[in-house]
Amino acid sequence: MTTVGDVIEPCEIKTLRGDEPLVEVLKFVDLNYVYPVYDGDSYMGLLDMAVVKSAYISSPDLIRHLLVSDCTVKVPMLSVLTDLHTASKVFMRFPVEQLCVKNDRGDVVGSLSHGAIFRAYDSIVRQS
Question: Phi and psi (nearest 5°) for 78?
Answer without folding.
Answer: -85, 155
